Amino acid sequence: MVGAGINGLLVSRMLIASGASVTLIEKHEVAKESSWAGGGIVSPLYPWRYDAAVTALANWAQAFYPQLAEELLAETGIDVQLHACGLLMLDAPDQQQALVWAATQGHTMLACGCDSIYKKETALAAGFESGLWMPQVGNIRNPRLCRALLASLQKQPGFSLMTQAAVTGFMISGSSISGVSVKTAGEAEVAHLFGSAIVITAGAWSQQLLEKLSLQTAIQPVKGQMLLYKFPKPPIESIILNQGKYLIPRQDGHLLVGSTLEYAGFDKTSTSPARQTLSHSAIAMLPALEKIEPVGQWAGLRPGSTGGVPYIGRLEPYSNFYINAGQFRNGLVLAPASARLTADIVLGVEPEIDPAPYDLRAHRQDKSMGFEEKSASTQAPAPASSSDSIMT
C-alpha cells in the first residue's frame, strides 16, 4: 500500500480484516496531508450537483460511518467525534433540483424560509432568504479518525508501517509488478519490497508515481486553505454553507472556515489573500467573527480529478496493480466506500459497489481528462517472458 492517508489506512484495515498482510508505505508521516487538513464534513457540498458515481460512494460511506466510529472507539478508546449536527445551505439557486435529488436518493432535505433559518441559527447575518436543511449530515474530527485507524492497525499482526519512505521505482515481472523500490530518509541503500498486490493510495501525489510506469490520469494537486477560530462555546449548531464557503462547528468551541480552490502545483503555503477571502466569506455568514482573529490557518493538497469521480480499480496492463485516488474535495466522505470497493477488487470478490464508473477505462472513454496511455514511445515496455525490469 503506497500512501498512508485516510484511503491507505482504510484499505489496509479492510484487507487485514479479510486475512491479508499489509505493508503501508508513506513518504512523510501518516495522514498529515489532505486527510488531516480537510474539514471533515461527511457529505459532498451541494451533493445534488455531483455525478451519480460520487453519490453512490457517498451514500454507502455515510451509512457506514456510525459503525466505523463505534468500532474504532471499542478498539482504541479514541472518540472520532462523529457529530450529526446537520447541514444548512443558504440561498442555493437550484433548490428545486436539490429537493428532487434528495427525494430520489432517499435523503431528508427540507426547504427553509427566512423565519426557519433564523429560528435554527440565530447568530447568522441578516439577509438570507432561503435554505436547504439536511439534518442527518454530520462532521467528524478527521485527525482523530486517522489516529484511531492507525492505532487499530498497529494492533494487528499482519500490519507493518514504513514512514519517511519514498517509492522510487517499480519492479516488473512479466505482466505483474512484483514489488517496489523504497528509499528511506537517512538510509543510503534502496530497499526492495515484494508483494502479491500493489495499491496506490497516494492522493495528490498518485500521478507522480504512475508516471514511473508511463501511465497517465487527470489527478493533480488542488490546494485548499482553511481558517480556524475559537469560541468559549460553539456559536452555531449546524454546518453552514453559502456560495461555496462553509463554517463547521466543533463541539469544543472551535470553528473551521473553508475553503479555497487553488491550482498551484504542490505548493502548500498559507497566504494572506486566502486568509482575507475566507475571513470575508465567514463574516458574511457569521458577523461575530469580525470581532476576533483566527487562531490558525493551513493548507492541504486535494487529489483533483475530472468531476470529482475517483479512480478505483486495476491499472492495466498489470495484473496486480491497483489505484484508489482522485476523490478531490470528497476524500473523507467517500473514503469508507472507496476502500471497500478497492479491497473487494484486490481480493477478487464480488464488489458491494458497482466498480464500472471508477475503472480507468471508464475515465478514458467518458471523461475529457480521464485515463490515457501516453504515446508509444513513452509506454511501459511489453511484458517480458523471461526477464524482469525496474521502472524508476
Would you write up a description of this structure?
- The chain has 392 residues and is α+β, with helices and mostly antiparallel strands.
- The chain has a domain at 1-84 and 139-216 and 308-392: FAD/NAD(P)-binding domain (3-Layer(bba) Sandwich).
- It is 29% helix and 25% strand.
- The chain has helices at residues 6-17, 34-37, 52-76, 95-105, 114-120, 142-153, 206-210, 272-285, 331-347, 360-366; strands at residues 22-25, 87-90, 110-113, 130-134, 159-162, 165-173, 176-184, 190-194, 198-200, 215-216, 220-230, 239-242, 245-249, 254-258, 296-304, 311-314, 321-325, 372-373, 388-391.
- Strands 3-4-2-12-13-14-11-15 form an eight-stranded mixed beta sheet, with helices on both faces.
- A hairpin with a 6-residue loop joins strand 16 and strand 17.
- The chain is globular, with a radius of gyration of 22 Å.
- Mean pLDDT is 93; it is low at 367-388.
**What is the CATH superfamily classification of one domain?**
FAD/NAD(P)-binding domain
What's the CATH topology label of one domain? FAD/NAD(P)-binding domain
Count of strand segments: 19
The helix-strand sequence is: HEHHEHEHEHEEEEEHEEEEEHEEEHHEE
Mean pLDDT: 93
User: Reading side by side through the largest sheet, how are the strands ordered?
Assistant: 3-4-2-12-13-14-11-15
CATH class of one domain: Alpha Beta
* Strand portion: 25-35%
Computed structural class: alpha+beta
State the end-to-end CA separation: 18 Å
Radius of gyration: 22 Å
Unreliable stretches = 367-388
The geometry reads as globular
Treating each run of at least 4 consecutive H or I residues as one helix, how many helices? 10
What would CATH call the architecture of one domain?
Answer: 3-Layer(bba) Sandwich
- Biggest sheet character: 8 strands, mixed
